Amino acid sequence: MSRRPPPIDIIPSVAPLAAATSAWLVDIWGVIHDGVSPFLAACEACRQFREGGGLVMLVSNSPRPRDGVAAQLDRIGVPRSSYDGVVSSGDLARSLVEEYAGRRIFHIGPERDLGVFVGIAVERVGADLADVVVCTGLNDDERETPDDYAGTLTACAARRLKMICANPDLTVVRGGRLIYCAGALAQAYERLGGAVTYAGKPYLPIYDLVFATLEGLRPGSSDRGRLLAIGDGIRTDLAGAEVAGVRSVFIASGVHARDGLDATVLEGLFPPGAPRPVAAMTRLVW
């Protein structure tokens, strides 16, 4: 008979965990901002950790490369003093797109995500002529849902096109509203029998890139025993941290805990056998 795992502590401050960590891997959307406004207490917590000698690496499933993510953070109002660097799934997606240099791609996603193709010799065409599908999101995520793409995805699956998913997130909360992401389209494509390659969390390649980036900032800082992942995505941030061998803290957000956070909610979110964080918080605070 398997033993029941110990309860997950709900902590009011991340500070007690800071002493045993050299670097934080912090999710952005849902932890640092909501797509519209910064969470200033979270930004301050990151700044305090950095002031004490820690490194903060923002790890995002954004389909934009890191420079584009940093520019977005500036526009939203996230202080640069909150972090040391950014690693995004857009960075990995570019490396996957580069494998199709000189070929034709069908892009599903808004114009703002075109940075993933900059400098790569690909031709954007319709699904009927493409060699691969690159999905960075919904074209109009304020109004559309995955159901709006049923015909498009069916046509791509009929041609057996591989899909590169540049953002494995299913949904995010933007200004209080639930918004579908590229991962939701990729999931629908897999249900049609389509093959998908994912760039980003929870898959190990993005963590390998994080570790390499940390080492470039400070040799020895990627020791997994002294890292802490902080995120609100159970199937991305927390599952990915477990795959990478890193402890995690769960931040309750509108994606998983709309009605508050307590022991009952946590046990429902993290049943025995599921990836479990070392602690949970309603929001990231020092």
Rounded to an integer in angstroms, the radius of gyration calculated over CA atoms is 19 Å
Percentage beta strand: 15-25%
Shape: globular
CATH superfamily of the largest domain: HAD superfamily/HAD-like
CATH hierarchy: architecture of the largest domain: 3-Layer(aba) Sandwich
Count of discrete domains: 2
Mean pLDDT: 93
- First CA to last CA: what distance? 39 Å
Describe the structure.
- The protein is an alpha/beta fold and 286 residues long.
- It has two domains: 15-90 and 202-281, Rossmann fold; 91-198, HAD superfamily/HAD-like (Rossmann fold).
- The chain has nine helices and 13 strands.
- The protein has helices at 15-18, 40-51, 66-76, 89-97, 150-158, 182-191, 204-217, 234-244, 263-269, and strands spanning 23-26, 55-60, 85-88, 104-108, 123-124, 132-135, 163-165, 171-174, 177-180, 196-198, 227-231, 247-251, 279-281.
- The protein has a six-stranded parallel β-sheet with strand order 3-2-1-11-12-13, sandwiched between helices. A five-stranded parallel β-sheet has the order 5-4-6-7-10, with helices on both faces. It has a two-stranded antiparallel ribbon with strand order 8-9.
- Strand 2 (55-60), helix 3 and strand 3 (85-88) form a beta-alpha-beta unit.
- The longest helix has 14 residues, at 204-217.
- The mean pLDDT is 93.
What characteristics describe this protein?
286 residues; Rossmann fold; 2 domains; 5-stranded parallel β-sheet; 6-stranded parallel β-sheet; alpha/beta
Layout of SSEs?
Blueprint: H1 15-18, E1 23-26, H2 40-51, E2 55-60, H3 66-76, E3 85-88, H4 89-97, E4 104-108, E5 123-124, E6 132-135, H5 150-158, E7 163-165, E8 171-174, E9 177-180, H6 182-191, E10 196-198, H7 204-217, E11 227-231, H8 234-244, E12 247-251, H9 263-269, E13 279-281
Parallel strand pairs: 1-2, 1-11, 2-3, 4-5, 4-6, 6-7, 7-10, 11-12, 12-13
Antiparallel strand pairs: 8-9
